[in-house]
Amino acid sequence: MSTRITSPRWLWLVLILSLLVNVFCVGLIAGRFGHRLAGFLEIHRQVNDVLAPLPAPTQQRLRAELRSALIDSRAQFAALHTGRQQLLDHLAAPTLDPTAIEADFSRNRQQLQALQTALQQHLLQTVSTLDPNERQLLIESLRRRLPASGIGQLDRLAH
């Protein structure tokens, strides 16, 4: 029986199965991280497209300020994520508790509004540091990329 296990044909079969399992695992891991990386790269590309009309030093400063705003808001993003997970847990419970679910919805609305307010304040501070020409270039670049519903708010920032 040991000659059967160590025969070249058997070893090749084990080697091929091992190789297939390894390729599958690597593909699974790469796909998971690749999906996240693709999302990050898309956001990075969009930011680059919006900032493209501005001079290079202004682009660098705005990227640094955006990075700072996101770092400063990290705790608010985490709280919002936790709140959404709680809401999903309550919705998935065997018996629905409308009071708890409504409290979760309310808390999520408050957290989202607080996060939006903080980011909008940071945007206002950032845009106010631009000279009128740079501000107009930025707003025109954003105007080409945003849906029509946000244009009124951008027009107020430009002037």
Number of strands: 0
Beta-strand share of residues = under 5%
Compute the number of helices: 7
Assembly state of the chains shown: single chain
Give the helices and strands as they follow along the chain.
Answer: HHHHHHH
Q: Which structural class do you get from the secondary structure elements?
A: mainly alpha
Unreliable parts = none
CATH second-level architecture of the largest domain:
Up-down Bundle
Shape: flat
Radius of gyration: 26 Å
Topology-level CATH name of the largest domain? Four Helix Bundle (Hemerythrin (Met), subunit A)
Report the CATH C-level class of the largest domain. Mainly Alpha
What number of structural domains do the residues give?
2
**Biggest β-sheet, characterized?**
none
Compute the separation of the termini in Å.
86 Å
Helical content band: over 70%
Structural features:
Four Helix Bundle (Hemerythrin (Met), subunit A), mainly alpha, 7 helices, 2 domains, 159 residues
Quick structural gist:
With 159 residues, the chain is mainly alpha-helical. It is 85% helix and 0% strand. The mean pLDDT is 78.
Tell me what the structure shows.
It is a single chain. This protein has helices at 2-5, 8-51, 56-72, 74-92, 98-128, 132-143, 151-158. The protein folds into 2 domains: 1-51; 55-159, Four Helix Bundle (Hemerythrin (Met), subunit A), CATH 1.20.120. The radius of gyration is 26 Å and the shape is flat. The chain is mainly alpha-helical. The protein is built from 7 helices and no strands. InterPro entries: Metal_resist. It holds the Pfam family Metal_resist. This is Signaling pathway modulator ZraP. Belongs to the ZraP family.
